[in-house]
């Protein structure tokens, strides 16, 4: 909305109000924030695994929650999970769905509800599993305190669910309901499967465990906050009387938590801790993921100054990782959150400013070969998606002005040449949510005179 249009709207509202004393003259805040002026914001689209549909949580005509899906081809709607399948078996009352996750085979749905805030986000709550084949709805962790479960996720074969509760990690069978407690030492100072304040604040870390691709192991972070200074705040929110809340919070130059990573059998047993070198209180381990299709961990370790990022690979069954690659910068580095493995895990993508601009690189598994995927006097901002069959990666960049963001493509095994896909007559910001198949996308465009506008269609949705 232009300033001229906004002024005209406010002037009209003022003139309308002068015609009768009975009418309330809206303030500018009421006009903009009270719903008189509405724009189409970014879409919360969750693409389904088939890449042809996206799902949503919506209310039906009776006001009850249901899970729906829309076909990208024609935007036709289907109800995946009707409201009558989301009733608490004990009370018969509807379950308020905060979020949901389908299992890999789409036979079950993990439902997140009754949430509680942990610092910035609602990461604690209750979880239910809905079996789509027989309609059975079962609550997880029923023996644990209400709304204490965090980061629940299906095993690859959907036979079990792992979650965190009160700083310990559990695995629950969906066949017989048996619960295995994998860690025993979690308390106010030892944190398993999630993170302390520093990792959430500095690295956006919350979910602190991963299933192995074969479903036999859980890899996780453990933070030992002993020796870290405590910070007191007054909690005026959770009750009518204020309470003092204490939590470990290292200030600059003081002792950090000692953080380590390891893996344990999903059936229980001893944890194998990985022998990463360096002082655990003066290094960070901000990222750890399993390499697709194999029981190997891809780990990023940063120094406290955050200007060196060492990449390690660790094999399940061993405890000594191998340093395959190191990225450095004179100032500071960011973590790599969009690593993509190529050609049967022989290469991986890596975002770096090693040439002075932020670009995407292709790195061999042993770290000896580093080739640019994108090149030029501009910053690569973020990946949108990739078409592995055609060998293209799609990304957002700002070549001329950082307030302008456009869609580009480059070959994963090319010479660094990039091609702009955003129309030249659409100056502004472009955002995309690409389907897993790479065929469809939601395109959001806006600029200083155009509110965010969404388009659904064949990628790149010009």
Automatic annotation (TrEMBL):
Residues 103-452 form the Dipeptidylpeptidase IV N-terminal domain. One of its GO terms (biological process) is proteolysis. The keyword Signal applies. Pfam families: DPPIV_N. GO terms for molecular function: dipeptidyl-peptidase activity. Residues 1-22 form the signal peptide. Keywords: Signal. This is Dipeptidylpeptidase IV N-terminal domain-containing protein. It comes from Phocaeicola dorei.
């Amino acid at each position: 909305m232009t300033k001229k249009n906004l002024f005209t709207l406010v002037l009209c509202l003022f003139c309308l109000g002068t015609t009768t004393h009975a009418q309330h003259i809206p303030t500018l805040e009421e006009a903009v924030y009270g719903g008189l002026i509405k724009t189409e914001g970014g879409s919360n689209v969750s693409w389904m695994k088939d890449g042809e549909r996206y799902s949503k949580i919506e209310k039906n005509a009776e006001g009850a929650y249901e899970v729906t899906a829309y076909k990208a081809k024609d935007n036709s709607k289907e109800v995946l999970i009707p409201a009558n399948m989301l009733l608490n078996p004990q009370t018969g009352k509807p379950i308020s769905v905060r979020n949901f996750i389908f299992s890999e085979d789409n036979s079950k749905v993990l439902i997140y509800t009754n949430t509680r805030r942990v610092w910035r986000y609602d990461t604690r709550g209750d979880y239910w599993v809905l079996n789509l084949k027989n309609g059975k709805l079962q609550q997880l962790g029923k023996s644990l305190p209400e709304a204490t479960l965090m980061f629940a996720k299906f095993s690859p074969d959907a036979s079990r669910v792992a979650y965190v509760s009160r700083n310990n990690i559990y695995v629950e069978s969906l066949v017989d309901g048996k619960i295995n407690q994998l860690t025993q030492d979690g308390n106010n100072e030892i944190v398993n499967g999630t993170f302390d304040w520093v990792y959430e604040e500095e690295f956006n870390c919350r979910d602190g465990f991963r299933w192995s691709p074969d479903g036999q192991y859980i890899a996780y972070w453990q933070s030992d906050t002993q020796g870290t200074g405590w910070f007191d705040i007054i909690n005026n929110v959770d009750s009518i009387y204020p309470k003092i809340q204490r939590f470990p919070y290292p200030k600059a130059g003081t002792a950090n938590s000692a953080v380590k990573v390891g893996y344990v059998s999903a059936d229980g047993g001893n944890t194998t801790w990985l022998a990463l070198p360096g002082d655990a209180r003066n290094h960070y381990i901000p990222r750890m993921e399993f390499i697709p299709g194999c029981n190997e961990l891809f780990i990023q370790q940063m120094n406290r100054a955050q200007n060196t990022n060492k990449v390690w690979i660790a094999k399940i069954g061993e405890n000594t990782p191998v340093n395959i690659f190191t990225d450095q910068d004179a100032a500071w580095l960011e973590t790599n959150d969009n690593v993509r493995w190529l050609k049967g895990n022989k290469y991986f993508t890596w975002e770096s400013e090693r040439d002075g601009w932020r670009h995407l690189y292709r790195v061999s598994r042993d770290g000896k070969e580093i080739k640019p995927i994108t090149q030029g006097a501009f910053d690569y901002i973020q990946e949108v998606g990739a078409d592995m069959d055609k060998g293209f990666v799609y990304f957002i960049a700002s070549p001329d002005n950082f307030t302008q963001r456009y869609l580009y493509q480059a070959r994963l095994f090319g010479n660094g040449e990039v091609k702009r896909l955003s129309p030249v007559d659409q100056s502004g910001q472009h955002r995309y949510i690409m389907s897993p198949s790479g065929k469809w996308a939601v395109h959001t465009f806006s600029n200083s005179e155009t509110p965010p506008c969404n388009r659904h269609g064949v990628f790149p949705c010009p």
